[in-house]
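Predict structure. Chain length: 161.
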Amino acid sequence: MTDSTTSTTGGSDQGREPTEEEMRAALEAEMKRIRVDDVVLQTVVSLINLGGRRAGLAPGTEGERDLDQVRMAIEAVRALMPLIEQNAEVAKELGPIRNALSQLQMAYAQLSGGGAPSEPPKPGEGPQPGEEPKPGEEGKEPEDPGKGPAQSSGRLWVPGQ
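Prediction complete.
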């Protein structure tokens, strides 16, 4: 009968912690393989995910809301996007990242007091030229038909503000 505490590795290194030298060699191999583009892209994805969390968008994260952190995440992603767009391999796959950034910007605008985006009036609903505005619309400037709802409502995302 053999002692159960005796190692039966038989020359195998499975189950033991790697040595510092082995870890250093693995890190060196990874550093040779990885590209700066990859790190920038992963950073952008991480910033969007963290920004969404700080906006309280994920279920159970409402208590983590920090609008200054959301704003900083948005600004950092916007600063890094031109660098990513220069890489032709990555640029073709940026649609989901742009979409996530847009959603984060909209959430920030709503949470920071902008409220829900207003819908443009349906044809025939707004005051006609020379007509008095409906109650509650006094003091409102008429919408410019050349502007979209974000521009005419003044809720357009402006970096740094």
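Summary: Residues 29-115 form one domain.
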